[in-house]
Design goal:
GO terms for molecular function: glutathione binding; glutathione transferase activity. The chain has 168 residues and is of the alpha+beta class. Helices cover 47% and strands 10% of the residues. It has 6 helices and 4 strands.
């Protein structure tokens, strides 16, 4: 059985939980909650699993650790031999990868920077350095993110013709 080292409050682990649900693989994994507020993700025993100290981490039955939600989603999507989330053709795979990267850079990264630098974040025991001025640049990026997502939905890049199990 695979293990997902997870935090039910984080956006990146949520992406893996969505992929698991979409692929109907929830029963094939066990979730282990990692307490971000206590800094469990920065302790040596967790850093052995993922040196960058980020979540989620997928632990395979053979002891291999996969980090980064896009890598985990790609792995899960190919378990059944017929990928649905990460594309089939070279064009689909390229477009999906491009939109994933754009969503991370233009949307998720600014939100993360804002959370960790302009709010109390995970608290003083974990957030050892905060720079509110750095977070202020995120407003411009949020406008770009809105423009990208609007164009992408209109062009069908985010909502492909192939339906998910949740959309008919």
């Amino acid at each position: 059985m695979m293990i997902v080292h997870d935090s039910n409050r984080g956006p990146y682990p949520a992406r893996v939980r969505i992929a698991l649900a979409e692929l109907d693989l929830q029963d094939n994994v066990r979730f282990v909650e990692v307490n971000l507020r206590t800094g469990a993700h920065k302790r040596p025993e967790f850093l052995e699993k993922n040196y960058s100290g980020t979540l989620p981490v997928l632990e395979l039955a053979d002891g291999t650790f996969l980090a980064e939600c896009t890598a985990i989603t790609e792995y899960l999507d190919h378990l059944g031999g017929q990928p649905r989330l990460t594309g089939i053709s070279a064009r689909e795979r390229g477009m999906i990868h491009m939109m994933n990267k754009r969503a991370e850079i233009e949307f998720m990264d600014p939100i993360s920077v804002y959370f960790h630098h302009a709010t109390p974040g995970l608290g003083p025991d974990v957030e050892l350095y905060q720079n509110p001025e750095w977070a202020s640049g995120c407003a411009i990026r949020r406008c770009v993110a809105r423009a990208i997502s609007t164009r992408s939905f209109r062009r069908g890049l985010i909502s492909p013709a192939r339906r998910s199990r949740w959309r008919t």
